[in-house]
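In the design runs reported in the main text, the only information available to the sequence generator was the tokenized backbone. The following block is the verbatim input for one such run; it is reproduced so that readers can re-run the procedure and compare outputs position by position.
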């Protein structure tokens, strides 16, 4: 197997190749003057299983990159191409909310040209139960629940875990049960990208607690900010935030800090200064 990285995923791909004891290659990409993508391999791929690593946040250019990479690998004699994208894009548009809209979650898999297998981490499964409903190729979903549970056990004594919406049940509730912590799953109604209504907080339970608000994605931060504003009416000991995929758009991490959040932690599916939980531990063999 050859692990192949791109500019934005070089470090992740290189470290993964060491864990998998596979050869590493960096795919060279640049732009033509008209902004079309140029791509070149520097190694022989004949008969190889090419394991592309590219986390598809800010996805549009990267979708072209991985499709060119997969197709070229096949052209050059690779026998199989896997794409490992720790963050799965376009999955939240899982329904035609307004007449005429693209249901992009169903279209995204079709854009992955010549890829035989898709591996991702904790995709935002809401209306879909499984990726099999939208992919024709083989898919594998990895979960960070155990990594997050271990992080919480190590760093927070007697926490109360809050999931801001029903979907966070699959993370918040499950992680809380696995470490025998209390949890609260709230009800959220999304009005627009920047507007949500959240209810269901039991203020009494929060008194003097180490609160962790746990969600899969922090994008604009709207969900977290709304939850934090609700928490103002209670008196927890401190408030912390953990997410799997931290996009932290629109300066949202700063906004969260200014609302009194003590610590912000994410995994490195999208690398940032808050990435304290390493997803590569999922590939290490248990001793
Ligand atoms: C959606 O329901 C997800 O679980 C997150 O709550 C959501 O994607 C966060 O987005 P934002 O930070 O823009 O509210």
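Verbatim output:
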């Amino acid at each position: 197997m050859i692990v192949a990285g791109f500019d934005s995923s070089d470090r992740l791909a290189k470290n993964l190749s060491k864990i998998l004891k596979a050869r590493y290659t960096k795919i060279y990409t640049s732009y033509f003057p008209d902004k079309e993508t140029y791509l070149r391999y520097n190694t022989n791929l004949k008969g190889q299983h090419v394991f592309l690593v590219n986390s598809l946040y800010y996805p549009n250019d990267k979708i072209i990159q991985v499709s060119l990479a997969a197709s070229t690998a096949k052209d050059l004699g690779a026998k199989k191409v896997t794409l490992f994208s720790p963050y799965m894009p376009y999955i939240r548009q899982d329904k035609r909310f307004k007449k005429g809209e693209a249901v992009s979650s169903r279209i995204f898999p079709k854009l992955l040209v010549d890829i035989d297998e898709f591996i991702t981490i904790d995709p935002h499964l809401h209306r879909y139960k499984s990726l099999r409903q939208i992919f024709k190729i083989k898919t594998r979903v990895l979960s960070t629940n155990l990594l997050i549970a271990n992080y919480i056990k190590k760093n927070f004594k007697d926490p109360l875990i809050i999931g801001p919406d029903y979907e966070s049940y699959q993370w918040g509730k499950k992680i809380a049960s696995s470490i025998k912590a209390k949890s609260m799953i709230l009800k959220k109604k999304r009005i627009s990208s920047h507007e949500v209504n959240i209810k269901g907080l039991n203020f009494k339970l929060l008194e003097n607690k180490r609160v962790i608000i746990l969600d899969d994605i922090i994008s604009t931060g709207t969900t977290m900010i709304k939850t934090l504003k609700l928490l103002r009416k209670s008196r927890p000991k401190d408030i912390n935030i953990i997410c799997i995929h931290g996009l932290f758009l629109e300066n949202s991490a700063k906004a969260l800090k200014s609302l009194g959040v003590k610590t912000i932690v994410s995994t490195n599916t999208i690398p940032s200064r808050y990435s304290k939980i390493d997803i590569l531990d999922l590939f290490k063999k248990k001793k």
